[in-house]
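Same chain as my last thread, 74 residues:
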Amino acid sequence: MEREEILNTINRISSQYPTEMKPDLVDGIKEKIAPLTNEIVSLFEKKELTFEECYAVLNFTYDVLKYKSQKVNL
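reply #2:
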């Protein structure tokens, strides 16, 4: 991902989270988020998933995280 793409994505994502989380999101982009994103995309490529399948996995994962965040403190 290009730096500009990463920053645009951060801005889009951070608008969905509470204000107190935004600095952590931006500060952690290089150390945590970007490498993890690359790892996830690499896994999708290894599994030879279609874009639709990737989005379905991500959507399901989002729903699971949303549910778990109500049950435990992530």
